[in-house]
Amino acid sequence: FVICFLATAATGATITTVNSLYTPAEISRQLEDSGASAVIYHPTTAAVVLGATQMLPPGSVKHMISTHEAVNSGDLALLTLEADDGLAYPKNLQVDLASDVLVLPYSSGTTGVPKGVELTNRCIVCNLQQVSHPKVVFHNPDGVSVLFSVVPMFHIYGMVACLMLSILTGSKSVTFHKFDPQLFIKSMVQYKPTVMHLVPPILNFLVQSPKVLPEYMASMRTIVCGAASVGDVIVKQVHDKFGSGILFQEGFGMTELSPGAHLTIMGECTPGSCGPPLSNTMTKLVHVETKETLGPDDGPGEICIKGPQLMKGYRNNPEATAATIDADGWLYTGDIGRVDSDGNLFIIDRLKELIKVKGFQVAPAELENLLKDCPGVADSAVIGVKHDKLGEAPLAYIVKNPKHESITEEHIQKYIADRLSTHKHLAGGVVFLDAIPKGSTGKILRKELKQMAESDSSN
Question: pTM for the full model?
Answer without folding.
Answer: 0.83
